[in-house]
Q: What sequence folds into this?
């Protein structure tokens, strides 16, 4: 059907629409509007990508994720604590990040190298690490987390003593490195060599333990969002760690939080950096795939 | 007319030509989407009509509640033949190291006290069911079993077994081979619960 083949009066609107050039310009204008719209959408939504915490949940892409909606621990915190995390100047975790930045530049060990000497600008070299660890480390044939990666670097490349787990130095440096990935979505690798460790982490998650005989899933999968006396159960997401906890009055690692949970169900906790905990760490980060890294988070 | 303008601004003309394909694609998608939404609105309206019709056709039933009685499993006799003390039972329910029931359950009679003493009675948990009227839902023998080991009745429950030492994983040395509560404690709490009507 070609209605443009008919003859129309010179100034009629129909004739105008049959002009190919006019149509082309109209469409080009529309496409320009779309481009402007997309660019402005990115510009205006930029503040929400800052990793300060979000009030909205995300839907996991992986259909095997047992959670239908993912909520950061930020969501379950009280208003005061949320405000504390959002405000960079007041967030007590950033004090440690600043100290970590100094450690990054500090020359140390027998080689007198700083982290910056090999890695350069942290915002470039460490932009993804915080969202990707724990990872499989081939020389040790096991999974390592960010803390252990930092200590490996110290040992092998700096010739320095490794920091003690949960020491102020290691927490600061870990928080600093992880905060470089702030606002990046968590994305850990669970296939290939990492798969058996992932499966072990999963088994640990669903294993009931302690005198109270509870698994992680009992609280954080089946009952999140519900009141447990004065606190609200979270989904147990790891994206804010190392986090400043008001209960600790300082920053602490995810493994310290694991130990706390184990003690609450009256189970014997594992040591910091234990393989069980690193496996669990991988499994937890996978459960939060897509959530923004919020390090340093603030939690109650 | 417009062509001549485009010819003069060669770069813009090239950009416009290049974006022509993309733009037409976009317009096509918008058109398809709008058609789809229009058709779905019509479909929804049709569904509403159908639903209204079926409402008229089916007769209304009286509402009823299903009671899920677990009669097969229970512990009929008091543990070690002990007799429960109701007052002690109330203290154990509030004790964070013993019963700690309010961690997960609500008991309405404490709501008044919660206003005066929120540390002990306030913020009752919402993980388990309310304990009000628990004695009307279960027999004493059934409740005894639920306190002793709730997993024998509800295998997936979060509720700890209060009188059990075997089949547990990695119990802290401090609590190893000890039940959370003694036989006497269980009977005390039970006597309190049986008064909750």
A:
């Amino acid at each position: 059907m070609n209605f443009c083949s008919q003859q129309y009066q010179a100034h009629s609107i129909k004739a105008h629409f049959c002009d190919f050039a006019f149509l082309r310009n109209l469409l080009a204008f529309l496409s320009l509007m779309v481009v402007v719209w997309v660019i402005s959408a990115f510009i205006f939504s930029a503040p929400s990508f800052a990793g300060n915490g979000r009030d909205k949940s995300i839907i996991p892409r992986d259909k095997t994720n047992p959670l239908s909606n993912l909520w950061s621990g930020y969501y379950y915190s009280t208003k005061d604590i949320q405000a504390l995390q959002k405000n960079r100047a007041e967030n007590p975790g950033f004090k440690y990040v600043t100290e970590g930045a100094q450690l990054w530049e500090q020359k140390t060990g027998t080689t007198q190298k700083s982290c910056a000497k090999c890695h350069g600008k942290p915002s470039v070299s460490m932009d993804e690490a915080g969202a990707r660890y724990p990872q499989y480390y081939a020389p040790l044939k096991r999974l390592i987390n960010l803390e252990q990666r930092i200590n490996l670097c110290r040992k092998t490349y700096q010739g320095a003593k490794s920091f003690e787990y949960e020491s102020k130095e290691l927490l600061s440096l870990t928080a600093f490195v992880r905060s470089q990935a702030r606002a990046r979505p968590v994305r850990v690798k669970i296939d290939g060599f990492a798969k058996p460790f992932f499966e072990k982490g999963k088994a640990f998650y669903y294993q009931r333990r302690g005198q109270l005989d509870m698994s992680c899933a009992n609280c954080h999968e089946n009952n999140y969002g519900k009141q447990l006396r004065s606190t609200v159960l979270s989904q147990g997401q790891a994206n804010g760690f190392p986090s400043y906890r008001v209960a600790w009055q300082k920053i602490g690692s995810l493994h310290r939080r694991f130990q706390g949970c184990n003690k609450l169900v009256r189970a014997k906790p594992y040591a910091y950096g234990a393989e069980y905990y690193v496996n669990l760490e991988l499994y937890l980060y996978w459960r939060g795939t897509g959530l923004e890294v919020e390090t340093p988070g603030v939690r109650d | 007319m417009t062509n001549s303008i485009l010819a003069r601004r060669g770069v813009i003309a090239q950009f416009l030509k290049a974006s022509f394909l993309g733009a037409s694609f976009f317009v096509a998608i918008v058109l398809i989407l709008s058609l789809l939404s229009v058709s779905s609105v019509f479909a929804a309206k049709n569904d509403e009509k159908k639903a209204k019709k079926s409402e008229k056709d089916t007769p209304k039933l009286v509402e009823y509640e299903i009671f899920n009685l677990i009669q097969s499993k229970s512990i009929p006799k008091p543990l070690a033949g002990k007799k429960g003390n109701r007052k002690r039972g109330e203290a154990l329910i509030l004790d964070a190291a013993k019963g700690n029931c309010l961690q997960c359950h609500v008991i309405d009679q404490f709501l008044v006290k919660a206003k005066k003493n929120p540390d002990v009675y306030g913020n009752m948990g919402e993980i388990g069911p309310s304990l009000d009227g628990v004695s009307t839902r279960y027999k004493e023998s059934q409740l005894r079993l639920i306190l002793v080991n709730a997993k024998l009745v509800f295998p997936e429950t979060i509720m700890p077994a209060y009188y059990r030492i075997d089949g547990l994983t990695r119990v802290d040395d401090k609590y190893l081979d000890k039940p959370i509560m003694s036989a006497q404690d269980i009977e005390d709490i039970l006597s309190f619960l049986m008064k909750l009507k």
Notes: The first strand of chain A starts at residue 135 and ends at 137.
